[in-house]
Amino acid sequence: MTIALSAGTLPALADKASVPAYDRAALSAGILHFGIGNFHRAHQAVYLDRLFGQGRDHDWAILGAGVMPSDQRMRDALEPQDWLTTVVEQSGAQSLARVTGAMIGMLPVGDTEAIVAGLADPAIRIVSLTVTEGGYYIDAAGAFDAGHPAIRADIASPESPATVFGLIVAGLARRRAAGLAPFTVMSCDNIPHNGVVTRNAVLGIARPIDAGLADWIAAEVAFPNGMVDRITPATGDHERAALAADFGIEDRWPVFCEDFTQWVLEDRFSAGRPALEAVGVQFVSDVTPFETMKIRILNGGHAIIAYPAGLLGITHAHEAMETPLIRDFLRKVEREEILPIVPPVPGTDLAAYFAIIEQRFANPKIKDTIRRLCLDGSNRQPKFIVPSIADRLKAGTGIEGLALESALWCRYCHGETEDGAAIEPNDPNWERLTAVAKRARVEPGVWLDMHEVYGETGRSEIFRDRFAGALRALWADGTRAVLTRYVGGAP
């Protein structure tokens, strides 16, 4: 028999899962968060839940907000269960369920006035966001794209913004007009220098609207950079059924994740912060070394296993790691091409860090899908792979493995596996990618001409040569043969 999750059923669930030991009625919102998705609920919300469990900082609870259809679906799922979420943390040996209670409400999705009023509430001292890597309106040069139609619309109608960043500007404008201190804007997305990127987006909207407002934001609002890490697959019927079968809990949108979690954050806040260092958050003056390490080694590693696995019809990440050819491909590219160019990280052994990542990728409980890892390559490759290629070219060192990864992505975007099965669209730019990938089968260089992905790196003759050779080999000999030669050291 299962028990439906709600505030009223928490006592009955206490023998099935860890439940909040604090009085949720005593919580008040101090954080407004855009993008209540799986990662946020497995990461930031868990840290806060642990902190509240220590009897601390109960005025820093989470109030949700959103503008996307997925936000409405999440709101519809969470409201009937009193904003509670079951998080199942999984190691290879065991699974543990905890019900988190750090979120206490969610504003009406897309309701401009309600959201701006929430942002203007002086109790809100941090506005955080997880809007995905592709949600920051970044152009081909890596700068904020002020010409994007959604951004232009927000600038033209500042009283009725529709984007997250337009709403943040409107909320800050209202606070300034009321003589209130600003909130901190804290990105929790997996992009390099996420605080800087967020600041550029906010100022990119504010300055054309009101130069004085933009100057005030630039001087008064903190945008800390942060590195976040926890592998958190999507939730489907399998996860809901597993939660019911293994723990007897009925949750409309549970989260399954690995037991590993990490958060490194610059200690720069406009109006205070919760004492997250008490629950494992590492506060530093400069997060750059940590985010470079994670993005290059972990996220780059995901890309390295994803595309050959996708072409070979492998479903899950742990199954890819159980395939010796893919595992050895990952190890060789990481050890020979990525780790040597990652700058030193305080207190961290990079080889040991990679060894932990291998274990995480191989965790059979997570069932992270290859399709998820292949998703949105047009936004992820410029952040996770291309910078490593650029650094190696600058250093005059080899790029054979990274060029092969790029060729595998191109081959994947052609739209069919090695066995001829169709690959369903898996990128916001899928139609264009597929068209270019088909041309690249004959003219490999056109793939690297996608300036929004490769930038100046795509013009390197060495890279173009290695990429073309790898792509032609993939079409001539197939993924297994090409990987076998590369892993074995053959030219």
From TrEMBL:
The keyword Transcription does not apply. Residues 286-475 form the Mannitol dehydrogenase C-terminal domain. Keywords: NAD, Oxidoreductase. Residues 30-277 form the Mannitol dehydrogenase N-terminal domain. The keyword NAD applies. InterPro entries: 6-PGluconate_DH-like_C_sf, 6PGD_dom2, Mannitol_DH, Mannitol_DH/Oxidoreductase, Mannitol_DH_C, Mannitol_DH_CS, Mannitol_DH_N, NAD(P)-bd_dom_sf. This is Mannitol dehydrogenase family protein.
